[in-house]
Amino acid sequence: MKRAVALEYARDADPAPRVTAKGEGILADKIIEIARAHGVTVREDRDLVMLLGAVDIDSPIPVEAFQAVAEILSYIYRKQGRLAAGKAAPGAAP
């Protein structure tokens, strides 16, 4: 069954990315549809979705997910031109 988790990270307000939505099946399809309609990058990672799917809505991601999420954010920021190549994503461990 398809699963989706949405994250939000406000660098100045959040100590870590937060889970803002999650769902399975039709709800997962809707989360992905809304994300794409708003120009949000969608990334497939089954293991990460399983880990983040256990997190309560509006809660920060667990420490175990920091590295994977930092890599994704770094990729997205570089793609959007918001981060120079070779720099770590905001909030990423050095």
List the helices and strands and how they pair.
Blueprint: E1 3-8, E2 18-24, H1 26-37, H2 46-53, H3 66-79
Antiparallel strand pairs: 1-2
**CATH-derived architecture of the domain at 3-61:** 3-Layer(aba) Sandwich
Mean pLDDT figure: 86
In DSSP terms (H or I, runs of 4 or more residues), the helix count works out at: 3
The separation of the N and C termini measures 36 Å
> What is the helix content?
25-40%
SSE succession = EEHHH
Would you give an account of this structure?
With 94 residues, this protein is of the alpha+beta class. The chain has a domain at 3-61: name from scop. The protein is 36% helix and 14% strand. The chain has three helices and two strands. The protein has helices at 26-37, 46-53, 66-79; strands at residues 3-8, 18-24. It has a two-stranded antiparallel ribbon. The longest helix has 14 residues, at 66-79. The N and C termini lie far apart (36 Å). Mean pLDDT is 86; it is low at 88-94.
